[in-house]
Specification:
The chain is α+β, with helices and mostly antiparallel strands and 606 residues long. The chain is built from 11 helices and 26 strands.
Amino acid sequence: MTPSADQGPDRKRKQHQGGRAPKRQKAYKPKPVKEGSSEEVLIADVRALFEAQKISNASQVPIENGNAESANVENGAGQEGSASAETAPVAVETQVEEALPERFTEIEVKVVEISSTGDGLALHPPTNRIYVVPFSVPGDIVKAKVITHFPRDNYSLADFVSVVQPSPLRDDSRVNCKYFSKCSGCQFQMLDYSEQLKHKKSIVEKAYKNFSQLPSELVPAILDTIGSPLQYEYRTKLTPHFDGPPGYRSRANRRSDTKAAFDKVPEIGFMQKGKRATLDIEDCPIGTDAVRMGMKVERKRVAEELHKYQRGATILLRESTKRIYKGDAEYQEDMETPPNTIKVTTPEYTDLKTCITDNKGESTEYIDSFLFTSIAGSFFQNNNSILPVFTQYIRDHALPPPGSYSPDLPKIQYLIDAYSGSGLFTITLSSLFKSSTGIDISDASIISARRNAELNKLDASRCSFMAADAPKLFKQVTYPKDETVVVIDPPRKGCDESFLSQLLKFGPRRVVYVSCNVHTQARDVGVLVNGSEEGVRYEIESLRGFDFFPQTGHVEGVAVLSRVDGEVKGGDAEMVDGKEEVAKEEPTEPEPAKEEPVLNEIKMSE
């Protein structure tokens, strides 16, 4: 059969003569979610809230003030009660949903909890959606502008517009920055600090529930978050930035070798929340006095030297301290304060604090009596006020509690500090051990760490450092595993499989895992608790958060783990170093109020 004119190879050409054929619409393909990312954490919280709302709907129990997980626990199924329009739960399975609002539409939503990323999670019953709204707290009714819908995950992103009805938890008189609710830095300035600490405890709880892959009975109760002594003026490092002049990235300018120039002083500050734009900020109240002073100086310098810049730049602001003790030759009772310096006087010494802006410069700070120097642009904890409490906590938990191990096991005498940086833990814990070794991949960090050991008068035989990739570190350490504790403080992505595998193969007595990302920490701790094929595994001794960054949604996590050296067998015997020992009951001294002696309860160690 001969094809007709409308069926042959020229069909498309004839149909679209005079123009291009319309492009096929590409199917939406969501980008893969990066493991341990804020997006992954947010999706886990959204799914938990969505599921809790479905359950609570069955019993007509509204979710209120951040209790999504307990909504159906505290209220039994079938409980009757009327709900107002504001508190009525979303009928997820039975309600006829309205169409999703168009982008940039303003809607009213009620916030029911704060996500682990620091943004409010709000319900919008007409559309059966969860809206992620920044700068909001549980109980707020807010006006929000819809930005993006994520159909597959049942949530939408929205910008905060205004508060329609404030929650009892909100007090805007607490806000200490005029850029709050615009700047992407702080999220909780309207919250009482005790509420911030409660929320950060819940972040750790949800991290281990969602990412550890462990049954609840293997995860101990999360301890209260340790707060920062300073809630403002605590950050010893800030990095404001400014963008390049208009057109500095254009292809036309690059082809013609035309160099764009600034026609005015650009915005210098931090990213605006939800927008790819820099917010001009002349002062940041979470910075220390020295850092805030440096910010003013640098803003003035950039304005005066604007002709030297052809593109944007990031400005380093890093506090550095010079301490002069009373007995020092240069100490003076009424010494003058040098220019661009903050003077802090105590009965024992005077601190002169300045702001370093050179990335390759050297900064100095003190933690109790320990002295640390580091390259100004390198990583060091940015809240000095909490470091004495934090390092003391690690010291208190590096060694096992008295009586928690078999007397047949030797004393712990060695420390391995993986990801050691400039030696924070290696040096502050050194007095507990016969020998300590810090290991880091950065040669520059190792140089700083060795210098810090010398400054703190620690002999190299007792406190040493080596440059090595963390996954290979156990090949270079000869400490006996039964006498060793390992402290790990990896980057946000956590430890890789190779490192965890080698750690389990080495099998140190104890592990203290410090992390700025409790979600990847929970994942890695789950691997250590589940153990290796050879039978080496750990139990979680304690979990706790530290608030290094008040007013924000970040929390530092500390997990203390001990190696499981024996399993309880049958209730009357235990395995110690592979040998079964019968537990014997021994009488104690009789208590005065009783006629017969009371036997001590025999505690079986795992």
